[in-house]
Specification:
The complex is a heterodimer of chains A (734) and B (159). Chain A has 734 residues and is an alpha+beta fold. Chain A has 19 helices and 29 strands. In chain A, helix 10 packs parallel to helix 11 and helix 17 crosses helix 18. The longest helix of chain A is centred in the first third of the chain and has 28 residues. Chain B has two domains: 71 residues, Ubiquitin-like (UB roll) (Roll); 75 residues, [2Fe-2S]-binding domain (DNA polymerase, domain 1, Orthogonal Bundle). In chain B, strand 3 and strand 4 form a beta hairpin. Classes of the chains: A alpha+beta (734), B alpha+beta (159).
Chain lengths: 734, 159
């Protein structure tokens, strides 16, 4: 990182309009790159909503484009690749405005830098999450690319002593058409770096896009089909030992004693490391480490959660919802409207704790020396990784180097640093580098989980059966309150209520309340689709209940409430049409619909399910209509929705983490089931084309599919499921 | 104890306990990290390799059971006809997302196509349902296997 070499020119400010109509400024700096070349620095916000953005220092320069003398374009950026295709889509934004081929753009992770990334108390604002990368980068990256292009053209025009407007850029060159002269960017970068930063560079109109909107191939795919891609778990600094660990099986328990006689006798075992609440076996290879761990005789002090069960947590949350919560949204007068309603409908919904179960189990490689510490890991919050290594070792921050790697599935898990802290604790006892790999059992039993939520919801309907009042109160953990405390205000955080407020539906009286109730013992964290993973299930199931109460078709019922939200109406109609909504299905089968506006994206899904006599549910077909505004890469949009749908079906049908005596009962993929090839439905994705700013794409498909499935089960069986996951015992029929 | 195993055509001598799973010999002893760890119980397929061309889960295969069989991993599957076609199809259809499970998926698919050049949907289900993908690329994996099985893909232009 060569930030200091950037000339301090007045910040170039370009206003742009956000989804909510509030403008946010883009800050750009240009200058000479170290070793020659042109450097542009700019800010990519990590968060889009006001509360979180205000809580983080979103205007620090955190992304850089370097154009070298060889014409290579390197983007140094804070987003990490977890499979969502960010590397490719982000590169497309720059290549489009800079007029270079996609293959010319290289990417580097921004290294953690406290000075650069602003507020050290927050630290974690350099993050990849909340389906925000493309939404946040859409404007600044194109602006940076366009600014660089204009500077390169200006440098060429000056050299040729021709008018700037007589030149244009194409395929990494500046061209003066009248004299048929062309010059490559690489030959211009040193001159361009001395140019003043131009202001208000115009961006291409959508009809001028050459790359954006095309299904460009993923840049990371070739290395992922031949085994050469290096994930965190593949790091192998010279001399690395392999460790695996057992953490207190009861949350909050401590290590009492360890008999390691047999473990030490295992061939290849080098060392046993005892911590306050964990024990690790260090060995030449993971086979020996696991064998050694199995040979340990461990006594645990179970601590305060020794009798904690899921039922206790659910009961406490349920009792909590008997009291008023923080008001997240209040429209009209719900109490009066419900009293005056013709029909009243109430329901209680519950969603379980969920594990992430990413395919790459938790792991982290650490080398602690007297004068420094190196960390090899795939993580979504690099500055926090660096900070925890510094805090744990007592080393100054600048003595910690973090090598970030590809992530074998994030889904929210790698926004946490517990695995890094743990690995550093172990590495402090080991001479040389050590790679700490969690077994799948540790990974599932010591995850940080999607919170359990308990919802009370009621509605009042008028004589036509349409909702005139909507009253929703729910209780559960606030992840942001822990993860980014300043974003938790007046008892509310924007993630937990996302999808429960600002509904696409026109309901004249509406009140939504949230109670932050933290369960004892069990840690909670972001999980793919975050707030909507819970809220959209409740809202869309309940909307289906209202339609059923009114004896109306679920699609027609929703459509009648969408007069003021035409984009929502359009995706609902498109999904219905493509799915053949209303066409008869065999007995035991049913269709269900869902509609949502979350992560800046409108989405409707129709699921077709079959329920067998013994209650087993098969999802046969899913049709998704999506309006995510401008599409950077339509193939990535399809891939993300296909994957998110599978992820959501896993949760709907099987996903459940339960506690018994303070321990997680599930251990591996046989007790924490996920969808397999033979259970996967056909998935169709229909994209609505428009030129609105892009919406988020990584998570929306997950929240939308869950109620589509349970509503389809209702259509097939008449059973309304208000508690996830689906319980086949409830669906048995003859 | 010393074992000599043949991996991707080369013989390697390793000094580990005989019950050490092949997975860890490949990854930690021989440094071939293309084969992945996912579950340790043959539940997810991330560790799939070939023993004499047949897909096996290396996380539950003790190294002393290999004998003189030929082991093939993702690093060398592109040298087989089926493996090359599968890798090509994976790229043509943009199958991968995070990519972590794909070594195992490709090894299972290559074994399937080598023994059954024109698999039906249920053949694909049988061969592939032991391989979990958390990114949910199943739809594309199925399409890619069918794509690789097409006669046009069989001409094999060297990958």
């Amino acid at each position: 990182m060569h930030f200091d070499r950037l000339r301090s020119v007045p910040a170039d400010r370009h206003d742009f309009v956000r989804l909510d109509g509030v403008s946010r400024r883009i800050f750009l700096k240009t200058g000479v790159a170290a070793g020659g070349g042109l450097m542009l620095g700019f800010a990519l916000p990590a968060f889009l909503d006001d509360a979180t953005a205000a809580a983080s220092s979103s205007f620090a320069l955190n992304a850089f484009i370097r154009i070298g003398r060889d014409g290579s374009v390197t983007l140094i950026m804070p987003y990490v690749e977890m499979g969502q295709g960010t590397y490719t889509s982000i590169s497309m934004l720059i290549a489009e405005e800079l007029e270079v081929a996609l293959s010319q753009v290289g990417l580097e992770h921004a290294p953690p830098n406290e000075k650069l990334y602003g507020n050290p108390l927050l630290g974690g604002v350099q993050a990849t999450g909340n389906s925000s990368a493309i939404r946040a980068a859409w404007q600044p990256l194109r602006q940076a690319g366009a600014t660089a292009r204009v500077m390169l053209i200006a440098a060429a025009a000056k050299r040729w002593r021709v008018d700037l407007s007589a030149c244009h850029a194409e395929r990494g060159e500046v061209v003066h058409k009248a004299s048929a002269r062309r010059i490559k960017y690489g030959a211009l970068v040193d001159d361009a770096a001395k140019m003043p930063t131009p202001e208000n560079v115009a961006l291409k109109r959508p009809e001028e896009f050459k790359l954006i909107g095309t299904p460009a191939k993923r840049l990371d795919a070739p290395s992922k089909v031949n085994g050469t891609a290096i994930y965190g778990i593949d790091a192998k600094p010279p001399g690395v030992k392999i460790a695996t660990l057992a953490q207190s099986p009861v949350f909050g328990g401590r290590l009492k004693s360890v008999d390691d006689t047999a473990a030490k006798a295992v061939k290849g075992v080098r060392q046993i490391v005892q911590l306050d609440d964990a024990v690790a076996v260090v060995a030449d290879h993971m086979g020996a480490a696991k064998k050694g761990l199995a040979a340990l005789i461990i006594q645990w002090d179970k601590g305060p959660n020794a009798t904690l069960n899921t039922e206790d947590i659910a009961r406490d949350l349920g009792n909590g919802t008997l009291k008023p919560g923080a008001v997240a949204q209040n429209v009209g007068d719900v109490t009066r409207a419900i009293t005056g309603a013709v029909t009243k409908v109430d329901a209680i919904y519950q969603v379980p704790f969920l594990a992430h179960a990413a395919m790459e189990p938790m792991n982290c490689t650490v080398h602690v020396r007297k004068d420094g510490c190196e960390v090899w890991v795939g993580n979504q919050v690099i500055p926090r990784a660096q900070a925890t290594a510094a805090n744990t070792t007592g080393l100054p921050l600048e003595k910690v180097v973090v090598h970030n790697h590809l992530i074998g599935g994030g889904f929210g898990r790698r926004l946490e640093i517990d695995g890094i802290t743990r690995a550093v604790q172990i590495a402090m006892h080991v001479d040389g580098p050590v790679k700490v790999i969690w077994t799948r059992e540790e990974d599932i039993q010591h995850d940080m989980y999607r919170p359990y939520f308990y919802d009370r919801i009621s509605a009042g309907l008028d004589e036509a059966g349409m909702p005139v009042a909507w009253n929703h109160r729910f209780a559960g953990s606030s992840i942001l309150a822990r993860w980014l405390p300043p974003a938790f205000n007046n008892g509310l955080d924007p993630d937990t209520t996302d999808g429960a407020i600002n509904l696409p539906y026109a309901i004249p009286n509406l009140r939504v309340e949230y109670l932050r109730i933290e369960p004892p013992g069990i840690p909670t964290a972001f999980w793919r689709s975050v707030g909507p993973s819970h809220n959209v299930f409740v809202i869309e199931s309940f909307m289906d209940e209202l339609a059923a109460t009114a004896k109306k078709d679920p699609v027609d019922y929703r459509r009648a409430l969408l007069v003021k939200t035409p984009r929502a109406k359009a995706v609902l109609e498109l999904a219905g049409e493509k799915a053949g909504w209303g066409r008869p299905l065999p007995s035991g089968s049913g269709r269900g619909v869902s509609l949502q506006f979350v992560f800046g994206t409108y989405m409707a899904q129709v699921a077709e399910v079959e329920v067998s006599k013994d209650g087993e549910v098969r999802v046969r077909r899913v049709v998704c209509a999506v309006d995510c505004g401008s599409v950077v890469n339509p193939d990535t949009v399809r891939a993300q929705i296909q994957g998110a749908v599978i992820f959501g079906i896993s949760a709907a049908l099987f996903g459940r983490i339960t506690l018994k005596d303070g321990r997680v009962e599930q251990t591996n993929f046989h007790t924490y089931r996920v969808l397999r090839m033979n259970e996967a439905p056909a998935i169709e994705v229909h994209i609505v084309e428009n030129t609105e700013p892009p919406g988020g794409m990584g998570e929306a498909g997950t929240s939308a599919i869950v109620p589509a499935v349970t509503n389809a089960i209702f259509a097939a069986t008449g059973k309304r499921l208000r508690k996830l996951p689906v319980d086949p015992a409830e669906l048995k029929h003859t | 104890m010393d074992f000599t195993i043949k991996v991707n055509g080369a013989e390697h001598r390793v000094d580990v306990d005989g019950d050490t799973p092949l997975l860890w010999v490949l990854r930690d002893v021989l440094g071939m990290t293309g084969t992945k760890f996912g579950c340790g119980m043959a539940l997810c397929g991330a560790c799939t390799v070939h023993r004499n061309g047949v897909a096996i889960r290396s996380c539950v295969t003790p190294v002393n059971s290999i004998g003189d069989a030929s082991v093939t991993t993702i690093e060398a599957i592109g040298t087989t006809d089926a493996g090359r076609k599968v890798q090509r199809a994976w790229l043509d259809l943009e199958v991968v997302q995070c990519g972590y499970c794909q070594s195992g998926q490709i090894m299972s698919a290559a074994a399937l196509l080598a023994s059954n050049p024109h698999p039906s949907d249920s053949d694909i289900d049988n061969a592939m349902s032991g391989n979990i993908c958390r990114c949910g690329t199943y739809v594309r994996i199925r399409e890619a296997i069918k794509h690789a099985a097409k006669p046009s893909a069989a001409s094999g232009k060297g990958g």
